Amino acid sequence: MIAMEKTYDITGMKCSGCVKKVTEAFTGVSGVTKVAVSLADGNAVVAGDFDEQNLKTSLKGTHYNIKL
Q1: Which PROSITE patterns does this entry report, sorted A to Z (predicted)?
Q2: 48: which of 9, 15, 18, 32 fits an S-S bond (Cβ 3.0–4.6 Å)?
Q3: CA 59 to CA 68: how far, in whole Å?
């Protein structure tokens, strides 16, 4: 894995509670050092040394989806 900062489109977010849940899910992924989720833009900026598939897995069981 290589340290990176990348923006991902997130679908299914409708409120600030959704932003909090996505932020918490991504923050819990090993290697993630920074998460900034925007409801207005429908995306998340994630930084660190992480596996992108783990971001997707972290949202399993929710109604949010990430476009890798």
Answers
A1: HMA_2
A2: 32
A3: 13
